[in-house]
Amino acid sequence: MARPPWDAIRIMSATPVRRMIKPLTEPSTKHAVGRLAGSLLAVAALAAPTDAGARVSRAKRAAPAAATVAVDYGINLAGLPIGTARLAGSFDRDRYMMDVSAVLTGLVGAITGGKGSARASGSFSAAPQPGAFAIATQTASSGIAVRMALAHGNVVQAEITPPLIDMQDRVPVTPANKRGIIDPVSALLMPTQGRGEPLDPENCNRTLPVFDGATRFNVVLSYAETRPVQKPGYAGPVLVCNARYQAVAGHRPDRPGVKFMEENREMSVWLAPVEGTRVLIPLRISVLTTIGTNIIEATRWSQSGTPTTTGTAGTGVAGNSVAQASLAGQ
Questions:
Q1: Rounded to whole angstroms, how far apart are CA atoms 10 and 6?
Q2: Are the C-beta atoms of 4 and 42 separated by less than 8 Å?
Q3: By the 8 A CB rule, do 42 and 287 touch?
Q4: Is-cis flag, bond preceding 273, omega within 30?
């Protein structure tokens, strides 16, 4: 099945990864990433670590506290609410940590039991450079965990637990496909480009080279418009970016879902600036699927830290985690 650009951010369970990370010497086709529950979550929200806003320099002169943001989302499919999600990030100079959690609710949740969480951390300049990524998903009948270690945009170690079944029609993932990439959670972090202004249309125009541990694909963004938005905790303009999905490796090219996503023109993301930083994060994501449009839209935005006058978000104290990722080694 094809993975939408945002579907690569998988909902994670609290199941710890119990095996050591293995060097990337095994055939990459053994590392196919499991599906989300019904592939209904186009993106998983982040659960803020309890100390997300507590990083303070221990130098003689204390540096300003890290800027933090927490965003709650509602998840809808074909107009019906099917879940909730959370995104939270901590940004300290050029370092970041982002956490994700999500849970399917209502009838869909009762049937699938879908839930999970994820974490990524690293540094950023023109683009994120993750150092670590972990994600685990759980449904009523199965679960999967993925962990990666990275250096300078290159995957150096990875593990998927349990290992997944080989598919002979899968496009092989080569060592070159694991270089110059970002993980799915870090793909939500958009550093400012061009003149450095958060609402510069150039901040939409970028290609995200995503690798989720088994599948390599591009998310190609392009500027559509700037529009005003008002949400609890946020009032101001956002960038609306069109999105395209490009399969690169690890996919099964003859699957109908892959072809559907490659031809899909009904995908977009709204990017909002995080006050006091030079990064933007999604306020809304919309992806057309074969059973309706999947929309993940912010219901609440809160911030803390040391804001500047360039942002548009309202400030507030970011809440604690709604679900912590209990991942061994993280």
A1: 9
A2: yes
A3: yes
A4: no
Residue whose entry in the numeric block shows the structure tokens 């958060």: 198
Gap between the Cα atoms of 298 and 321, Å rounded: 17
C-alpha distances in Å from residue 313, one per residue of 75, 131, 285, 304: 22, 28, 18, 11
Q: What is the mean pLDDT of residues 232-255?
A: 96
The domain of 71 spans: 22-58+67-304
- Contacts of residue 12, defined as CB under 8 A and 6 or more positions apart, other chains included, come to 44, 100, 101, 115, 116, 117, 118, 134, 135, 136, 137, 138, 145, 325, 327
Strands 95-104 and 45-46: antiparallel
**Exposed / middle / buried, residue 201 (Cβ in 10 Å: 0-12, 13-18, 19+):** middle
Confidence of residue 263 (pLDDT cuts 50, 70, 90): very high
Q: Residue 164: which pLDDT band, with cuts at 50, 70 and 90?
A: confident
Whether the per-residue pLDDT at 19 is higher than 90: the answer is no
Express each pLDDT in 70-85 by its tens digit. 999 999 999 999 999 9
For residue 32, what are the β-bridge partners? none
Is 232 contained in some domain? yes
* Domain contains 3: no
Residue 281 lies in a domain: yes
Beta-carbon-side half-sphere exposure of residue 177 (alpha carbons within 13 Å): 21
What per-residue confidence (pLDDT) applies to 42? 34
Q: Which pLDDT score is estimated for 64?
A: 61
Residue 52, domain member (yes or no): yes
- Going by C-alpha positions, the residue among 248, 320, 330, 325 that lies closest to residue 53 is 320
Number of domains the chain is built from:
1
Phi, psi of 263 (to 5 degrees): -95, -5
Cα dist. 192→1, 204, 223, 246 in Å? 33, 9, 14, 23
Question: What is the DSSP-derived secondary structure letter of residue 110?
Answer: H
